[in-house]
Structures
1.
Amino acid sequence: MPTKDAQPARLAVRKTYKLFIGGAFPRSESGRSYVVSDAKGNFVANAAQASRKDARDAVLAARGAVAKWSGATAYNRGQILYRIAEMLEGRRDQFIAELRTFGLSAAAAVSEVDASIDRWVWYAGWSDKIAQVVGGANPVAGPFFNLSAPEATGVVAIVAPAEPALLGLVGVVAPAIVTGNTVVVVASPDRPLPAITLAEVLATSDLPGGVVNLLTGSPAEIAPWLASHADVNALDLTGVTDHGLAKELEVAAADTLKRVVRPAAVDWSADPGIARMTAFLETKTVWHPKSFEGAKGSAY
Amino acid sequence: MTVATTPSAATLAEVTRSNAALRAFLHGLPGVDKVGADARAATLGTRSIKTTAKALAIDLAISMVDLTTLEGADTPGKVRGLANKALRPDPLDPTCPPTAAVCVYPSMVAEVARVVKGSPVKIASVATAFPAGQASLKVKLDDVRDAVRAGADEVDMVINRGAFLSGRYLEVFEEIVAVKDACGDARLKVIMETGELVTYDNVRRASWLSMLAGGDFIKTSTGKVQPAATPPVTLIMLEAVRDFLAVTGRKVGVKPAGGIKTSKDAIKYLVLVNETVGDGWLDPHWFRFGASSVLNDLLMQRSKMKTGHYSGPDYVTLD
Amino acid sequence: MSIFEYAPAPESRAIVSLKPSYGLFIGGEFVDGSGSFKSISPSSEEVLAEVAEASEADVDRAVAAARKAYEQVWGKMSGAERAKYLFRIARIIQERGRELAVLESLDNGKPIRESRDVDIPLVAAHFFYYAGWADKLDHAGFGASPRPLGVAGQIIPWNFPLLMLAWKIAPALACGNTVVLKPAETTPLTALLFAEICQQAELPPGVVNILTGAGAAGAALVAHPDVDKVAFTGSTEVGRIIARTVAGTNKRVTLELGGKAANIVFEDAPVDQAVEGIVNGIFFNQGHVCCAGSRLLVQESISEEVLESLKRRMSTLRVGDPLDKNTDIGAINSAEQLARIKELTAAGEQEGAEAWSPPCELPSRGFWFRPTIFTGVSQAHRIAREEIFGPVLSVLTFRTPAEAVEKANNTPYGLSAGIWTEKGSRILAVADQLRAGVVWANTFNKFDPTSPFGGYKESGYGREGGRHGLEAYLAH
C-alpha cells in the first residue's frame, strides 16, 4: 500500500491565456503564441501573439460596440465601471499574485492593485459628470439656444504602458471607455497576464462585448495596423517607448486625421485629471432658434 | 404649394365641411419658424434701392396707396380733401400717379364718390362694425350693403379674432363667406388684425382661411391695434397668396396696413413683394398700402429725386 | 426684365487706400520680403497690390521676433493688460469696419452685404470675446494658472480671410502666446490692414507677425522647430500633411478642415424657412464655406415641392459685383478654385446627375459660377462625397429618419449638419446621432464667438470659439 507521501502531487490545471475580442476569448487567428516569463526568467505561460488580422477583428468588434455603448446612459456606464471595480476587488489576490510573478514586492503589488481598483471607482463617477464639466450653454448674440456637449470620439486604439502593468492599463482604458468610446488595447508584451485577467473581469462585469478588446503580442507588429486602420478614430501612444515607432504611428494616423495622444512619462499614482477623457471626446454644438412661434402641433 | 399634405383644389372644398376638417387643414400647413422669417425679412430690408429703381418704386408705391381716414372726427369736407389728394397727390406735377383708392367709413363713401367718380381711383370702405367687429352678423352685413350701395368698389372687413383664437375656424369662415356674398361685385379685403393673432403660424392659418372663404385681398391690420403691419407678417402673407395661387389658380391680393410711415418702409415692402411673389403682385390691383402719412413722405422723396435737394412739409399738401 | 429692377448700388471704394506694395509684418514693422506676388480682385482680375513673398529665412525672422516678444513682453504681461490691447484692437476694427469690409470684398470677391453684415462684425465680436478671457483664464477649467504655449504658427484660408485671422489670433493672444500668421495667397490684404491696426493699437512689436506667401512659406512655418503650436484652417489634404509634419514633435496642433455637410429636411419642416436655410447653407459666400450644407437630404414625400420652391428662390439670387449692396453671390475666389468647381460639376453630369441653374448673366471678366443644384444624386457620386467648395448643391432623398442619419454620417467628414423639422424630440434625437461638430436645427451657417466650432473625423480636431477655443493655446 503506497504511502501518502508517495502519491503524486495533484497536477495543476494551467490556464491558457488568450486574446479578448468582442467579448470572447479567441486564440490568435495566426495560431502563434509566445512565452511569458517571470522576473527570474522562468516559464509562466504561453500568451497568444496577436496578428494584424486579430487587430482587424478587434477593430470590427470595437466599431460594432460603439453605438450601444456610447448610446447607453451615462448612469449605466458608471454602474458598469463600478461593477468592474467590484469584480476586480473580488480577484484582488489573483492580481497581486500575478504582479508579484513579475517581480513586484508584496507591498508594491498590493498598492498597485488597490490603486487600480480605486481608479475604476474614480472614473465610474465621472461618467455622468464630464459632460457638465466640459460642456454647457453658450450665450450667443441672437435668438438661439446653443449648447455644447461632449461625445465619444469612437474607436480608440491604445498601446498600454509596459508598466505598471495593471494600473497603467486601467489608467488608459478607463478614461477612454467611461465616456462611451470603445477600445482596442495592445497590452504590455512582457507582462500580459494582468491584462488578460482584467479581460476576464471585464467579461463578467456587464460590459457589452466589444467595448474593450485586448491584444497581446508585439506592439511594434500590431500598432502600425491600428494606426493606419481607417475605422479607428483615435490613437493613444502612451505605452510606446521607441521614439521612432511613435513618430511612425503618428504619421500613419495622419492619413485619416486620427486624434493622437503622444507618448509621455506618466505618474500613474497621481490624480489623473480629465485630460485623458477629453482627449477622446468631440464637442458637438447644437443651435436652435428660440421663439414663441417655433413650435406647432404636427398633423403628420 | 410646398407640402405633400396640401390638398388639390378639388379637395379644398372638403376642408370647410366641418370645423374639425378645417382645423385639421389649417394646422397641417407648414409651420413658420419665427426667427427664420424675421431674418429673411430683415435681410430683404437691407436691399439698397437707388436712383432709377427708387424713382420707380416711389411711383409704384404711390399708386398702391389706399389713402385712408378712419377717424370719429371725419367730416365730408375732410374726406373730400383726401379724395382730391388721391386724384392728384402732387397738384404741381401731372406725372405723379394717383393713389389706388380712398378708404373711408361707409357713411363717407358717397362723399368720396362725388370726387373720384370716373377716375381710376377706387373707393374702399371699411365695414362689418370696424374696427372691433363686435356686432351681430346682421348688423355687419347691413354695414357692408350700405357701403356697396353708396358706391364702394372695395370692402375692408375685419375677421372675428375671438372666434379664430378660440379655434372656431368655421364660424370665421362662414362670416367671411356671408360678407363676400353681401359685397356683390365689390372686392373684399379681409383684415386679419395680425397684431392680435400674435403668432406667425396663426397669420398663415388666417391667411388661408380668408382665401378659402373667398377674400380677394388679405390685409394685416385695422391700424387701430399695435403692432400693425410688419415686414415678416407681410412676408408670410405673400407666401400664402403665392401658394394659394399654385394650388387653386386663384390670385389674392395683399395689403399691409398701419405703421408704414416712410418711403423707406414702403420700398422695403415692395422689395418683399418683388423677391417673394414677383411681378404678378407689383401692381395696385394686387398689392396695396393701407396708409395716410406715407404719401407725403413718398411725395417729398419724389421731389428730392427730381430736384436733387430735400423737400419739406410746407411743399406737400396737408389734407 | 422684371418690373422692379434694382439699379446698381455700389459701395464706394474710396474708403480703402491701398499702397502699391506691401512688405512682411515682422517685429512690428513692415519689412521687405524675398520675393513678391500680386493680389488680384477675383471679380475683375484687377491687380490690387503687390505683396511680399516670405522665404524660409523670413519665416525664421518672424518666429524669432515672436519668440522674443513672447519671452520679453507678452508672455510676462498680466492678463488684464493683454485684455486691454485686445479690446483696443476690437474697437479699432469696429471703427474701421467699413474700410475692412470693402477691402475684404475687393480681395476675396464676397458680397459686401456679407463682409459688412457678417464677417467684420464677427471679427470685432471675436476680439471682444477673447479680450475678456485674458485675465480670467484661471477660471476657464484648464487648471489653476494655465500657461501659454509660446509661439503659435497659424495658417488661414481665403474664404473668410479676416474672420479666420480673428479666430486664430484672438484666443492665442488672450492666452499669452505670440503669433506668426500666414494669410492665404489669394487674400492677403485684410491681414495686412490688420497689421496696421496692431500698430495703431500700439501692440508690442513681435506679438503679431504677418507673413504673406504661398504654400512653401506655410510649410516652413509648420516645420519651424521654434514653433510650439500649429493652427490651421484649410483643406483636409493639407491638414494631413501638417499632421505628418508635426508627428514625433512636441508641437500642439489644431486643424479645421473640410466638410460635406448634410442639410436634412423632414416633411414637417417649416418649409419656407427651410428653403432659406438651404440657400444660405450652400450659397452663402459662394459656397466657399467648410461647413456649407452641400448635401441636401430631403424627405421623399416633400422633395418635389421643396425643389420647386428652392428653384424659385434661386431665381431671385443676384449674382455679380461684390461691391454692389444688393449682390447675393459674388465672385469665385480664384481661377484655380473655379477650375476645381468646373471639374467636379462636369464629373457630376458625367455620372448622370442632372444640373440646374437659374438663368443669370455673369460678368465677362473675373471668376464666376452660377448657383447650381444637382438632382438625381446618389451617395456613390463624386459630387456627393467630395467637397466642391463652391455654389453647388447635391440633392439626395430619404424616407425615414434612420436613413437620413445613415446617409448624413456616411462620409469621412464630420464638420456640420442641418436639421429641419418642427418636431422637437426628433431634432434632439437626430442631432445626437449626427457625427458632426456643429448641428444647426431650423437654422444654418450661424456663427458666434461664444460657440465652439470644429469637426469630427477628417474635418479636423480641436475647437475654435468659446471657452473650448482656449484649450488649443494653453499648456495643460
2.
Amino acid sequence: MKNIYHGILNSFATVVSLGILLMVTGCDLNTRMSTFKPKGPVAQEQLDLFMLTVWVTLGIFIAVGGTYLYVVIRFRERPNDTRPLPKQGHGNPLIEIGLIGISILLLVIIAVPTLKGIWYTQTTPNEPASRLGNWYTGEGLSEGEDENILTIKVFGYQWWWAFEYPQLGITTANEMVIPAGKAVHLELRSVDVIHSFWLPRIAGKVDLIPGRTNSMWIQAGNSFDRWQKERQDSIDSINATTAYETYLRDEIDGYYYGQCAEYCGDSHARMLFRASVVSDQGFADWVADHKEGNPTTPEGDNWNDWYATYDKDPDLLVGELNEGIKLFVGKAQCNSCHAINGNPRAAGVGGPDLTNLAQRLSLAAGWLNHHNEDGSIDESKQLENLTKWIHDPNSVKPGNLMWIARDGRGIGQLPQEDQLTIEESRKISLFLQTLK
Amino acid sequence: MSESASSEHDSHHNLVVGNKKLLMWLFLGSDCMFFGTLISTHLIYRKLYPEEYDPTQLFSLELTSFSTFILLMSSFLMALAVSAMHKGELKSFRRNTLGVIFFGLIFLGCQVFEFSEFVHLGLTLQSGTFGSTFYLMTGTHGCHVAIGVFWLTCLLFYSYSGKMDAHESAIDVEAAGLYWHFVDIVWILIFTAVYLIEFIGKTGGAAH
Amino acid sequence: MSSTVTATPTTQSEHPVVLSPERSKLGLLRPDHGKSVIIDWLTTVDHKKIGIMYGAIALFFLLVGGLEALIIRTQLAVPENDLISAQRYNQLFTMHGTTMIFLAVMPLNAAFFNFLVPLQIGARDVAFPRINSFSLWAFVAGALVINFGWILQALEAMGLFSASGPTEGMNDFVPAMGWFGYAPITGIKFTGAGTDFWIMGLQILGIASLTAAMNFTVTIVNMRAPGMKMMRMPVFTWMTLVTSLLIVFAFPAITVALGELMFDRLFGTNFFVTAGGGQPILWQHLFWIFGHPEVYILVLPAMGIISEVLPTFAKKPLFGYPIVVFSGAVIGFLGFAVWSHHMFTTGLGKVATAAFSLLTMAIAVPTGVKIFNWVGTLWGGRVRFSPPMIFALGFVWMFMMGGFSGIMHSSAPADAQQQDSYFVIAHFHYVAIGGIFLAVVSGIYFWLPKMIGKMWKGNLSTWVAIFSTVGLNVTFFPMHFLGLLGMPRRTHTYLEGFGWETYNLVCTIGAYILAFGILLLVVDIIRCFRSGEPAGNDPWDARTLEWKTTSPPQVYNFGKTPIIHARDALWEDKYGPENRKCGEQAEDGHGIHMPSQSWWPLLASAGFIPLGLGLSLMQAGVPFMGYFAIFGLCLCTVGIALWAIEGPGGYHLHPKKDA
C-alpha cells in the first residue's frame, strides 16, 4: 500500500531533518553568550545539571523512540492483509507499573543533583579568599566590610543598568567591573518594570522585580588558588607573577556579555550590559580612578574656575570642547540626569552615571559598540556612536527617557526651533570622549 | 438562566444530582476559587504590611456582627422557602422569600453604611493595599448578595404568574437557595478571616 | 434536515405536520424552522453546528496567529533588521501568544468537545443547549474586543486617532506586554489602551470558557446513554471532563487577577502598583495558578484525540485504559501544584524552588505513562497509515521531544539558563505545534468526514504532514541552541556577532515551510468540502459511538438512544460477542424532544462587546464610552432576563424508520 510508504516517509523526514539540523547546529558553541562555555562555578554547576538532564533524556529518547519506530514498522499493515484481527488486549498492569517505576528512578537521578544544585547556586558563599579584607588593596573601603565579600547593587531601569558598589561608594552604569575569581554578591532591584539579570557565561538569570530585592552570587572563573591546585605540576616551574598572568589569560577571558532577559517594554531588545573582569590590582585601580572621576576640565582647568567664567560670560569659553561642555550643562541639560564624578555641576541621578564614560567599550546599554577585536577602543567609531545616540536617541532606543523624559527635560522635548543640531551633538560627544 | 435544559433532558430520573443543581454546584466550586483568591490576596498583603493599617480603629464589631447575624437568619429563611416550595406551599414560599430579600437588603444597607463610614474615616480604594483588597473583596461579596436579592425578587414575582409548578420550579428555587447559602458561608469566612482576626490580642479593640 | 423527519409542536399529534415557529412565553416567535440560513446558524442550539462554528472561527484565528508569527520570524531573519518597529514587534508577539492560546487552540478544542462529546456518550445534545450558544457568542465577542485595537492602531498610524484621558500620550492600542502580562508593565504608567482591550477581552473569553466548561461537565456526568458508565467512556470524553474541571477551578484565579488589574488601571487601586505597596510578584502567582493548568487545558484534549486515533488505526483497544484515564486526571490535579516552575528566576527561595522542581519532575511520570501506553497500543496491532494516523504518529514523536525539554526545565538551576530564552520557545512549540497542532490536524482528518458527511480526496495529507513536521523541526530545533547560546525571548532584534545569525535564518526558513504545510491543510479541507464522495457512517472502521450514527449526524444524533454494554461500544457492536453489542432504548411514543432555538444567548453575549470596548475606549479618552459600557451591561442583563423568561420550549421530532 502506498500509505505505508507515506507513514514511514513521514517518520524519516523527521529524523533526517533533525540530523541535518544537528549538523548545521553542531558548529560553533563558543560564542559571546554561550552557556556551553561557562566561566566560574555557578554557570558550571548549571551546565553540569543541564548536561545530566540531556544524557538522561537522551537515554529515554533512544529507548522509547527506538521501541516506537520498531513497533510502527514491525506492526504495520501489509498489502492485502488477510490476517485475523489483532488480539484485543487491554493492557498489562505489570508492564505498566514497571515502566512507572523506571520513570521515577530516572527522575531521582536528576532530582538529587538538582536539589544540591539549588542550594549551591542560591547560597552566596563567604569563603576567606573572596572576603574584601583579604584581597582588596585599594582605598575607600567602608568600615567593617573586611569580613564581607564584594556586594554590588544592580538596579534595572527601562532600558539600562546601574551598578552600585555600596562598600566602595561608587556607581557605574551598563558596564560592571568585577574582580577575577572572587565570589561577588548581587542585590537586584528594579525601579520601574521587571527586568532580568543574565550573564550567561557566568551565571543564569535572576529577575529584578519592583517592590522586592532579589539576590544572587556570581564568580568569574575559578579562584586563583583552585586554578593553581588544578595545575600543580605545570606551574611549578613558573614564578608567582607569571602564574597570575597566565591565570588571567587562560581562566578569565576578561569581557563578558549580558542582557536583560525579561520583557520590559519597547526597547527590551536593546537592554544589554557588559562585565569586565580584572585582576585584584586592576580592580583597586579602577575604583580609585572612578572615585576620582574627571576633576578637571578637558583642558586641565579647575571646574570651579570654569563654571565661574561660564556664569559670568560664557562667550569667553571657546573651542569645540568648551562648546560641548556648555551644551552639556546648558541647552541640552544633560547634567540634570547624569552624573560625572569630579564635575560639581554634573550630579543628576535619573540617568546612567557618566564617570569615565569614554573607557567603556559600548554605549546605550551595550547596543552601540566601538571596540576592536583586541579590546581597545576605536575612537572614531566611539565618536560616531556618541553623536548618533545623542542626536537621535529615539531611533537608537525607542521610548527611552533621554528623548522624552517624564519631567519634561528630554532632548526631544526641546522647543522645535531649538533642537540639537548634528554639529551640537558632535560637540557634546567630543566632550564626553574626554571622560576617561 | 439555568432553565435552559429542556425538561426532557432532565429526565434521567436515576441521576444523583440533576442538571441544574450540578451546574450550580460547579459554579459554586468555581466561585470558591474566586473568593479564595480574593481573600488570600487580602491576607497576603495584611501579613506583608502588618503595620500599614490598623483596622481595629475602623471596624465596628457590633455592626458587622449584627449584619452577619442577619445574613445567617436569612439563610435559615431561605431553607424554609426551599422546603416550602418542595411541598408546593406557595404562600409559605412567598413569605419566607420575602424575609430573605428583606434581610438581604438590611445586610446590603449595613454594608453601604459601613463603606461610607470607612470612607469618611479615610479608607478609600486608593489607600494602600489594605483599602484596595478590602473593598474589592467585600464589594464583590456585596455584589453576590445583590445578585441573590435580584434573583429571589424575580422568583417572587414569578410565583405570582401562576406558572410555577412544584417539581420544576422547586429545582430553580433550590439552586437559588444553594447560591444564597454559599454567599452566606463566604461571608462567615470573610467575617472571621478579615474582621474578627484583627481583634485577637487587642483588648477592648474598637468596641467603642 | 427536516426533509427526513416529520415533527409536531410540543403537543403530540397523530398526523405529521411541517414544523413552524411557535411562540415563546414572551409571546415572541421563536427562531426555529425559519427559512433563513443565517438566522438558523445565529440562533442555533445544536451542539454540532456550534462545534462547526467554533472550528471555523478557530481555524481563522489560527491563520491570523500564524501570519503574526511569520511577520515575527521575518523580522528576526537577519540581525538589526528594521522591517517593523519595536512596538509593532511587541504587539505581534503578544497577540500571537494570546491569539494562539485563547482564540485558536482553546476554541479548536471546544469545537471537538461540542461536536463529539454528546455523540460519544450517546446524548441528544449538551445539558444546556442555550448556554452552549451563549459560550460560542461570548467567545466571538471576546475575540472581537481583544483584536479591536488593530483598527485604532491603524487609525493612529494614519494620524487619525490619538489617545487622551488616562492614557494620554501612549500610542499602543494593541496589547504589547506579552500574553502573560506581567505587572507592573501592564500598569497605566507603562502601557496604553491596548492593555485594557486585553484585560476586557480575556475577561469575556474567561466567561465563555467557564460557562462552556460547566456545561460539558454536567453533560458528561449526567447525559450519558444508559450503560455508558464512567469507565466505559471514550478517552476523549474523559479528557474533556478533566479539561472542563480544570477550567472551572483554574479560571477564577485569572478572573480575579484581571479584575484587580482592571481596578488598578481604572480606579487607581494598588494591587500591583509598587508606589502604593502593591507587589507585582503577586500577579505572577495568580497568573500561573491559572496559567499552568491552562497548559493542560490545551494539551489534554490533544491527548484525548490521540487516544482515539491510535486504537482505531491499530485495530486494538487502548493499552491500559484505566491508567491512561487516571494519569490524565493526575496530570490535571498536579497541574495546580507546579505553577511556580514558571517563576524559578523570581527569587522564590530555596525551599519553594526545590519543592516546585520536584513536583515538576513528578508530573513527567503520568505524561510518560501516556506515551508508554500509546506505544503499547500499537504493539501487536495492525498499524494502518491513514491520514489521521500519520499525524497521530507524528504527535507521539514530537510530543515526546517537547516533553524531554520539559524535563530539562524542571531542574531549577539548569532552568536559570533556559528561562526566558529561545530554549523555552523551542520547548513549548514542540508541545504546542508538535503536540497540540498535530493532534488537532489528526482530529480534523479523523472526524471531518463525520462532521460533513464527505470523504477526503487524494493524498494531499501526506504533503501536509511532511511540510508541517519538517517545518516544525527546522523552525524550532535550532531554537534550543539559540537559547543556550544566550538569545533572550521577546527581543525585536539582535546584534551581529553573537553567533545567532545562522540559527535565526534557518528558523525563519522553517517557519515558511511550516506555513506552507498549513496552507496545504486549508486547501485539503476545502477539497474535502467539495468532495462528492460520501463518507458513510463508519469510514475508518472505528471503535466509538459517534461512528454508529449517520454522517453528518441527524439533528437528534441517534434515532433511538443506544444502550451500552462495553467500552469501545461500536467495536464491540461490530465484532464483539452478543452480550456486548449495543442495544436500543424503546421509543416512548412521544417522539424525540428537541430544544428550541433562541436569540437571547446571542443578545446577552453581544452585550459584552459594548461593555468591553466601552471600558477600554474610556481609557483612551473617547467621549461617552462610559455610557456605551453601561449600555452593554444593560444589553447583557436584558438578554439573560429574556432568556430566563422565554422558557426552554422545545418540540418533538418523529424520525422515519429508515433514518
